[in-house]
Design brief:
The complex is a heterotrimer of chains A (about 250), B (about 240) and C (about 270).
Chain A: H1 9-12, E1 24-33, E2 36-46, E3 51-55, H2 62-69, E4 77-82, E5 94-97, H3 108-118, H4 126-132, H5 148-160, E6 166-170, H6 178-193, E7 197-201, H7 205-211, E8 214-219, E9 222-228, H8 229-234, H9 239-245
Parallel strand pairs in A: 3-7, 3-8, 5-6, 6-7
Antiparallel strand pairs in A: 1-2, 1-4, 8-9
Helix pairs in contact in A: 3-4, 3-5, 5-6
Chain B: H1 2-16, H2 20-53, H3 59-69, H4 74-85, H5 100-136, H6 141-151, H7 153-169, H8 172-178, H9 188-197, H10 201-231
Helix pairs in contact in B: 1-10, 2-5, 2-6, 2-7, 3-5, 4-5, 4-8, 5-6, 5-7, 5-8, 7-10, 9-10
Chain C: H1 2-17, E1 24-30, H2 31-36, H3 38-50, E2 53-59, H4 61-69, E3 75-78, H5 81-89, E4 97-108, H6 122-132, E5 136-138, H7 144-156, E6 168-170, H8 175-185, E7 188-192, H9 193-198, E8 206-209, E9 216-223, H10 234-245, H11 247-255, E10 257-258, E11 261-262, E12 265-266
Parallel strand pairs in C: 1-2, 1-3, 5-6, 5-7
Antiparallel strand pairs in C: 3-9, 4-7, 4-8, 4-9, 4-12, 10-11
Pfam family, one (chain A): ABC_tran
GO molecular function (chain A): ATP binding; ATP hydrolysis activity
InterPro entries (chain A): AAA+_ATPase (IPR003593), ABC_transporter-like_ATP-bd (IPR003439), ABC_transporter-like_CS (IPR017871), P-loop_NTPase (IPR027417)
Chain lengths: ~250, ~240, ~270
């Protein structure tokens, strides 16, 4: 089941109509973990709409950047400003799909229901959400029996259940088979079309080409390059980005 | 050795004869210890879950105390409960001394720390896996506790079993607060103690065998439940 | 959650049913009377006559008195006359009545290392045991039997405490546990005859010293004083005490026998 059905309109309209939390503005953001410098002096501006792909060699701090933006960790220096809000304050309006999906020890449907119930949302949407990610036929099965690709799609359904304004994805397709990758990309693309702001960490250059509106290239804890996808892939401005796209810069 | 062989045949004979007194004692043992286990879970599981997820100053000391309380001597618990429930004690007006309720109270005090300390360990491990995802979901502490208790339910069954095992096997506390009154507060362990003091060693041992078989039955039931959960990947 | 709570209520409710009897009293008594099976024989007769259920907590005399002083009982039935009289004098009991007696015996292994078998002078026998250094197991628990034993040592002019941990072994346990321990270590034991006759783990032990008047063991019955303990069921307690010392009760006590041997001898004063 790799076909992503369109998200019914009713699912997308429940969105909060509060003051938008974009644009996002980072100034001088640094992060140290146990003495190691992970991020250092990150400046970044992200506007409303679209899909931002965050790329960079291993250890560049991509995952940590997502956690900072989502308010799961606090920066050691600098400011993160979601249109006047601190990250922790707007976490409920965002969702994060982890690289390794953390599924509850319950059925597939109960995993989605859990989030709806915890957040006081309409619990009748479970089947629509599962249908949307192509898992309706597995609703009653134990979530932990799903394949890697199915598990990640369930994580996506759970993330979409809260109608997030921002959808973070942290290498969600790493080590998945091509069909699963395609299915997940399709779901993400639909979310983006529905107006969800997507911020997507990936290692996969092909995936970035397929999905990106703009690209943030991280290198050694800093934003080495940030620009429209077309420009980045055609003519990267930095030596590091060029070598990364050539497959020479891995770490 | 003769006693042991005699005890086994006596145990069989007792069970097969359908001895009414034996069944009464077994039923009371189960009733008291299962109720105490249930109460201990109601108290100990949320407590264990809270300590598992909370970070606060003095947490290390709380953990030490919780773990130390697992070793509470039953006789000491029995004495404390006796002093409170005695007619001349602060709760004497309740008239609970020498009743199954008093025995339930004593055993609950005895095993609630065990349930709390062991569930804390189980749930802390589980929370290590879930914590970041739960924070992303913006769950309240109450929601986290409930989710951990539910998802850890099959592992927590083992914790409950540990508590039940301790309760059903202890004699010191129920002897003091129950009084080992025939047809009223006599349970397996106090009956065993009584037969030992009567010098009826084979009968005492036979009762011990029956108790062991009951404990085996309860454990096997829980194990079967757990196995089905493992097959569903719910553990 | 609802399920758990109703399940709990059910469990507690069931637990509650068992003792929800109005006409029942609690007797604080000694292991010697309970272990011998006297109550199993006596109480059904009393209940059949009066409809009153009697529950018995069997502990050492010291603990039984302490429990009764805490108002955790309606009747005290023990065997330590001086302590009982103190109990009444302090106002905890209404009146003490002699009820019955049995006697103490010294049991020992067939080998009889102190050579006391057949003696009828208990003080002389204790003296022999102490001098021979043969082990002697004492209750050491402030029970009626223990108090009796201490008074016998005193009468013999021996302080066994000097051999404590050596030949004089204080178990700190009930009669049965002390017999088990004593038999296990080949020690002499002072026990009441009732417990001994019904004891199931005698091995090669026999009664070796008996018949001394100093070995008589007087039991008394005392209703707990409602003035001191308002919670006691004074009327039912008095009914029980009255019945025990009545002709019917005394006859019932005399009728209790194991292996054809009478264990307790009624001696309540004639009304």
């Amino acid at each position: 089941m790799s076909e992503a059905r369109p998200l019914p309109a009713s699912l997308a309209t429940a969105r909060a109509v509060a003051v938008p939390i974009l644009p996002l503005r980072l100034r001088g953001v640094g992060l140290r973990l146990g003495g190691a410098v992970i991020l250092d002096g990150v400046d970044l501006d992200l506007g409303a709409g679209g899909c931002t792909m965050v790329m960079g060699p291993n250890g560049a701090g991509k995952s940590q950047l997502l956690k900072l933006l989502h308010g799961l960790t606090a920066p050691s220096a600098g400011t993160i400003d979601w249109n006047g809000h601190a990250p922790q304050a707007v976490r409920a309006r965002q969702a994060l799909v982890f690289q390794k999906p953390v599924l509850l020890r319950r059925s597939v449907a109960a995993n989605v229901d859990f989030v709806l119930r915890a957040r006081g949302l309409d619990r009748s949407r479970v089947s629509a959400l599962l249908d949307h990610v192509g898992l309706a036929h597995k609703a009653a099965q134990p979530a932990r029996h799903l394949s890697g690709g199915e598990a990640q799609r369930l994580a996506l359904a759970r993330a979409l259940a809260t109608d997030p304004e921002i959808l973070f994805l942290d290498e969600p397709t790493a080590s998945l088979d091509p069909a699963s990758v395609q299915a997940i990309e399709r779901i993400v693309a639909r979310a983006r079309e529905g107006g969800t702001r997507v911020i997507f960490v990936t290692h996969d250059i092909g995936q970035a080409r397929r999905l990106a509106d703009d690209v943030v290239f991280l290198h050694r804890g800093r934003v080495a390059e940030h620009g429209p996808a077309r420009d980045f892939f055609r003519q990267p401005r930095t030596e590091a980005a060029r070598r990364f796209l050539d497959g020479q810069l891995v770490v | 050795m003769q006693n042991i062989a005699e005890a086994f045949s006596l145990a069989f004979a007792l069970v097969l004869s359908g001895d009414a007194d034996l069944f009464e004692i077994v039923a009371l043992s189960l009733q008291v210890s299962l109720t105490a286990t249930l109460l201990s879970c109601l108290i100990g599981l949320p407590l264990g879950a809270l300590v598992a997820i909370a970070r606060f100053p003095g947490r290390g000391a709380v953990l030490v105390v919780m773990n130390a309380l697992m070793g509470l001597p039953p006789v000491v618990v029995g004495l404390l409960v006796y002093l409170h429930l005695s007619r001349s004690g602060p709760l004497g007006f309740l008239g609970l001394l020498y009743t199954p309720t008093a025995m339930i109270i004593a055993q609950t005090i005895l095993i609630a720390p065990i349930v709390a300390a062991l569930s804390r360990q189980v749930l802390e491990d589980l929370h290590g896996e879930y914590a970041e995802q739960f924070r992303s979901f913006c769950l309240t502490r109450r929601q986290i506790v409930r989710a951990l208790l539910w998802d850890g339910r099959y592992s927590l069954l083992t914790v409950g079993l540990a508590g039940f095992g301790r309760a059903v096997a202890e004699v010191g506390a129920v002897m003091i607060v129950g009084g080992n009154i025939d047809h009223l507060t006599r349970v397996m362990t106090t009956a065993i103690a009584l037969e030992t003091s009567r010098g009826e060693l084979a009968l005492a041992l036979a009762l011990g065998i029956v108790l062991l078989v009951i404990a085996l039955g309860v454990n096997a039931g829980v194990q079967a439940l757990r196995m089905s959960a493992v097959r569903q990947a719910y553990v | 959650m609802k399920h758990t709570l109703s399940g709990l209520a059910l469990a507690l409710g069931l637990a509650g049913g068992a003792w929800a009897q109005d006409q029942s009293i609690l007797v604080q008594s000694t292991t010697s009377t309970a272990n011998s099976g006297l109550y199993d024989y006596l109480l059904p007769i009393f209940t059949a006559e009066t409809g009153i259920t009697v529950n018995v907590v069997a502990v050492g005399t010291g603990q039984a008195i302490k429990n009764a002083e805490n108002c955790d009982g309606d009747v005290l039935l023990v065997h330590a006359k001086p302590a009982e009289e103190k109990f009444v004098a302090a106002g905890f009991g209404t009146i003490r009545t002699d009820l019955m007696y049995n006697d103490f015996v010294v049991v020992g292994p067939a080998a009889d290392p102190a050579g006391v078998a057949g003696m009828t002078d208990v003080e002389a026998a204790l003296d022999k045991i102490a001098k021979s250094g043969a082990p002697f197991a004492s209750r050491g628990d402030d029970s009626g039997t223990h108090k009796k034993e201490v008074s016998l040592w005193n009468a013999a002019g021996i302080d066994p405490k000097t051999g404590s941990g050596d030949w004089y072994r204080e178990t700190g346990s009930g009669m049965g546990a002390t017999l088990n321990a004593g038999i296990g270590m080949g020690a002499y034991v002072l026990t009441d005859r009732a417990t001994w006759i019904s004891f199931g783990n005698k091995q090669d032990y026999t009664v070796q010293v008996q018949g001394d008047e100093d070995l008589f063991n007087q039991y008394g019955v005392i209703p707990v004083n409602p003035a001191k303990c308002p919670s006691v069921k004074a009327e039912a307690a008095q009914t029980f005490a009255d019945w025990l010392v009545s002709g019917a009760g005394q006859a019932a006590i005399a009728g209790f026998a194991i292996d054809g041997q009478q264990l307790f001898f009624p001696n309540a004063p004639k009304m």
